[in-house]
């Protein structure tokens, strides 16, 4: 209808992707979730830059993948958007250099001023996922944009949100009233972001993914980005797991490691890297090495699927009970006084259950 040719593949395939791009002579392609990471994990080819693509458009391009993908495949421009199906909170950035590589949107001075009371970050209790409110006034605790938090969207009335089909209860849960003053109405985005002083929006985490450990909030996106930059790691899926006799959740990173590195992977080097890049409470206590190729723990739309991994936790006897193909996964752990990750066995789990081992 707009005079633009569109080529649609039968399905996403790492093996066929660039063949389809070349055959169709595409100048743009659309990505979602970890698509770029899976393409980057394929063996290098002399044809990597033999295409006409000048821009990739989509959402979910992680900072640890952005530059390596651009350098290897020579795609100079990225149109990264941040949005929800409901469309109540939308951001976009058109990236052509290094300035906006790590962000999901950008607001200039005028937009920052205009939206200062429309898009508002608030503090969240990550155990209940409820907005933190002042016990005296009952109003929400507004965070600074630099600190970030769950983004609330101010609404004039409920009709602005179309709601979920035939599900009024789910629709109702998306609203919160009397947030900053009596009678006001806000839509809960369910996503935590922060904004820099110059207007770059940085994705922090999805509500429900952030966990508490050592009385601190841990952003799974921040940890995944840091761990994912370590040599030999294609993908890091980070989540919190329950551990007997410990409050909160301990961090676990499910890793896909390059096949040629798995046998002699440097577990001491990973521990050193994580402790340099992250505060102590955010360093993953556990690591789960996923057996198989990159993307094994992906949902149908190439997004990381943490639900099954989180449900299994780190009890070795539960491997594969929820996560398909997980029976052969290996679990490692890092004790507070250790300088490297070591295998986590059945006896170690029994010690945690019995209370004789502490983290």
Automatic annotation (TrEMBL):
Q: Which domain of life is it from?
A: Eukaryota
GO MF term list: long-chain fatty acid transmembrane transporter activity; long-chain fatty acid-CoA ligase activity
What processes does the entry annotate via GO biological process terms?
A: long-chain fatty acid import into cell
A Gene Ontology cellular component where this protein is annotated is:
peroxisome
Q: Which UniProt keywords apply?
A: Ligase
State the similarity comment: Belongs to the ATP-dependent AMP-binding enzyme family.
Record-given protein name:
Uncharacterized protein
Q: Which organism does this sequence originate in? A: Alectoria fallacina
Q: What is the lineage of its organism?
A: Eukaryota, Fungi, Dikarya, Ascomycota, Pezizomycotina
């Amino acid at each position: 209808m707009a005079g633009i040719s569109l080529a649609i593949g039968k399905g996403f395939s790492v093996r066929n992707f660039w063949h389809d791009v070349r055959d169709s002579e595409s100048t743009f392609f659309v990505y979602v979730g970890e698509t770029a990471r899976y393409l980057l994990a394929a063996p290098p080819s002399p044809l990597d830059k033999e295409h006409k693509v000048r821009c990739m458009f989509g959402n979910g391009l992680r900072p640890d993948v952005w530059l390596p993908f651009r350098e290897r495949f020579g795609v100079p421009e990225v149109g990264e958007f941040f949005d929800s199906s409901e469309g109540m909170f939308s951001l976009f950035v058109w990236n052509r250099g290094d300035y906006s590589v790590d962000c999901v949107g950008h607001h200039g001075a005028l937009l920052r001023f205009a939206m200062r009371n429309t898009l508002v970050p608030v503090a969240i209790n990550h155990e209940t996922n409820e907005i933190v409110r002042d016990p005296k006034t009952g109003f929400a605790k507004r965070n600074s944009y630099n600190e970030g938090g769950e983004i609330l969207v101010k609404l004039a009335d409920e009709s602005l949100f179309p709601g979920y089909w035939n599900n009024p209860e789910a629709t109702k849960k998306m609203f919160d009233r009397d947030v900053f003053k009596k009678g006001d109405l806000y839509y809960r985005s369910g996503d935590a972001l922060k904004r820099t002083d110059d207007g770059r929006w940085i994705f922090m985490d999805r509500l429900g993914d952030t966990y508490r450990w050592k009385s601190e909030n841990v952003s799974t996106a921040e940890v995944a980005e840091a761990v994912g930059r370590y040599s030999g790691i294609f993908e890091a899926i980070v989540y919190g797991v329950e551990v007997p006799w410990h409050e909160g959740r301990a961090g676990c990173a499910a890793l896909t490691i390059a096949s040629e590195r798995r046998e002699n992977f440097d577990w001491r080097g990973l521990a050193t890297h994580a402790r340099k890049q992250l505060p102590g409470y955010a360093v993953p206590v556990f690591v789960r090495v996923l057996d198989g190729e990159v993307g094994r723990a992906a949902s149908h739309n190439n997004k990381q699927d943490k639900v099954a991994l989180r449900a299994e936790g780190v009890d070795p006897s539960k491997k594969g009970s929820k996560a398909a193909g997980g029976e052969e996964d290996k679990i490692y752990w890092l004790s507070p006084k250790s300088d490297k990750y070591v295998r986590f066995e059945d006896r170690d789990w029994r010690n945690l259950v019995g209370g004789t081992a502490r983290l």
